[in-house]
Amino acid sequence: MNKIAIIGSGGSGKSTLARQMGEMLNIKVWHLDSLLWKPNWTPTTKEEQISIQTSLVKQEQWIIDGNYNGTMGMRLEAADTIIFLDQWRVMCVYRVFKRMLKYHNKTRPDMKEGCMESLDFKFLKWIWDYPKTKKPMVLAKLEKLPKGKNIFVLRTQQEVERFLESLQK
Questions:
Q1: Pick from 6, 24, 49, 139: most CB atoms within 10 A?
Q2: Is pLDDT above 90 for 134?
Q3: Using alpha carbons only, how large is the chain's radius of gyration in Å?
């Protein structure tokens, strides 16, 4: 495992897993949210997103967490290991509320400085609809990848914990 892409719905635990794996494997972690948002939640352009991620995936080792469906393909192709956190949407919504309370009016560690944590209906709807609107596309992309890639679909927190335990061995 040298190039690891972690994908999943908002609130699925991508950033937490990335940090844990980075510490365990001594691999640099890149949170796309911190790279692809500018202060005050101003998005980068598609060209900037492609440029940033092209540079990242050329490195020898990395852990990149984030969805960004428009550029997901480049990460999946470059990765030797892909982890799809296919968590229950109620859990994802719960975690987003918990995160919002913890970091309300602050910038969380995996975000660009100046992007204060808040919550809006559009984001909650995106999380709630993820299993129907985004998950089928993600699964289709995973199925089309060449053989030889390590692909893990983790559906529960217990599966995530077992996965982390297996890395320690």
A1: 6
A2: yes
A3: 15
